Amino acid sequence: MSALFSPFQIGDLTLPNRIVIAPMCQYSAEGGNATDWHLIHLGQLALSGAGLLVIEATAVSPEGRISPFDLGLWSDENEAALKRVLDGVRAWSSMPIAVQLAHAGRKGACNKPWLGGGQLPVSEGGWVNVAPSALPFNEGELPPEALDDAGLARVQQAFVDAALRSVRLGLDLIELHSAHGYLLHQFLSPLSNRRTDAYGGSLANRLRFPLQVFDAVKAAVPAGYPVGVRLSATDWVDGGWDLEDSVAYAQALEARGAAYLHVSTAGLDARQQIPLSEGYQLPFAQRIKAEVKTPVIGVGLITRPAHAEQTVAQGEVDLVGVARAMLFEPHWPWRAAAELGAQVQVPPQYLRSQPHAFKTLLTPMKPHAAKG
Hints:
Layout: E1 8-10, E2 13-15, E3 19-21, H1 36-45, E4 52-59, H2 76-90, E5 97-102, E6 130-131, E7 145-146, H3 149-168, E8 173-178, H4 183-188, H5 203-220, E9 227-232, H6 243-255, E10 261-264, H7 282-291, E11 296-298, H8 305-313, E12 319-322, H9 324-328, H10 332-340, E13 344-346, E14 362-364
Parallel strand pairs: 3-4, 3-12, 4-5, 5-8, 6-7, 8-9, 9-10, 10-11, 11-12, 13-14
Antiparallel strand pairs: 1-2
């Protein structure tokens, strides 16, 4: 039996397999509102046979966006637009769906990547970013404003409000984004957090605001509702956030009831030096998994089904996140099931696509079970 295709429990949520579609920004929203692109994009991924689909980084406030084109969940209009997309997807797929709630901090107000990705001036649709400290991400950019106590309270409440909208939408779980150099990660790293108050300096102080946000979200959602966290295990810069810090953060999150830890790396500092190779981020996930009982998702150039199977079968991680490979090959789990002798759930409309050599590869997907 394939380990990758064995079921897995996150809280009360049962995943049919260990393949997680990691969140991938699409820069295709309008005023934070999901569009037909999201219906097409998420609909395609929801037919892939993966165990869990995590919606892209979704901003909790307008100034929390990476770009003016980011998905958002700060308004009734945002909520209604995402509901339309989710209703369309769920009409044909029973795949569990999560949302990644995020705030870009100093990395906000940027153009679309395919249009250069640089920071947009206020006159061209940008805005003044907020951050732990008034330090820009890149030299020459407009410095962010350092958050005061009132600003911290606003950000925390924005996460809570977006979480409540997520619950109303019937999303299966929430992932809080504290990775890739965005706001919560900025509080964690000494490279971006130069505060001298209770939120800066020592590791305990730098952990304070991300943990405060987690606690507030966890308290706001129904008991037992799964809330996971994505973190960057290292900045890949000397003197920055590192694996030992990440272990401490993971243990603090576990003590607070985190449903899972989604372990990535990097994104905080332009000086990062990343030695890219197959599975290059997995050792960080393995170390964190060895220090906690909380389920761990591992990522990082995992593109071969045999490699994904090995890392789960050997207990290195509990689940495997696949992102760009899934965009390139939206039915990657189908191929993985074929190679590993497993089964994958597909819409009944696609059952006839099963190659003659695979008699029991494809099984019919059950209808989505409405919540509430």
